[in-house]
Amino acid sequence: MFCVKKPQGGWRIVHAYSKLNDATIPAQAPILRKDVIIDSMAKSTIYSALDLRDRFYQILMRESDIPLTAVSTPSGMLWECVTHLLRSVRDFAPSYFDDVFVHSRAVNGKTDVEVPKEHLFKLLGLMRNHKLYANLKRCTFGASQIPILGCVVGKNGVRPDPEKVRVISEWPTLSNVKELRQFLGLATYLCKYVENYADKIRPLSQLLKKEAEWKWAAECQ
């Protein structure tokens, strides 16, 4: 067991549950693809984002199993639980693990202020009924755009998260294969926004080949 510091402060306890996981029946709920969630928000004008606090700790566990875990439940359990409980609002409030994204627009004679209020009322009512709690400090309500899964979604479309673009553009010169893999891991996450991405990173891909000699040339930079 060890602890990892959280970005917002506090500590997260980490356990090795390999044997317990092997004996656990995995959750069968499929995880929505990122592009499906983002595409469902097309043409919306007002957005909200809710972060479910404490993630797995909101899910009650069978009392006899508590001594076996003490800390958390598998991630699939959280996903299956949240998607099932919030299924009736999925059309305007898709969820991704412990994040719920609400997208609204004026429709049927109602304004883009009235519709978001109705959507949030329905969502928060469901959360109250099922005892799902949000972290208010990490929630956004009635915004013209919101960050979601590495992107920024708004009424004018989807664009890469400026913070991730900044990190990529300011990345220091790479000195070994390990650093290159780390860089490409982040860059590939935003590759859909880069024209001819595969051609642009070809010099870097060559350095990943098994027998390749590490030589950082101008074309790599």
Automatic annotation (TrEMBL):
Top-level taxon: Eukaryota
Domain (Reverse transcriptase): residue spans on this chain: 4-82
Signal peptide stretch: none
Protein name: Reverse transcriptase domain-containing protein
Species of the source: Phytophthora cactorum
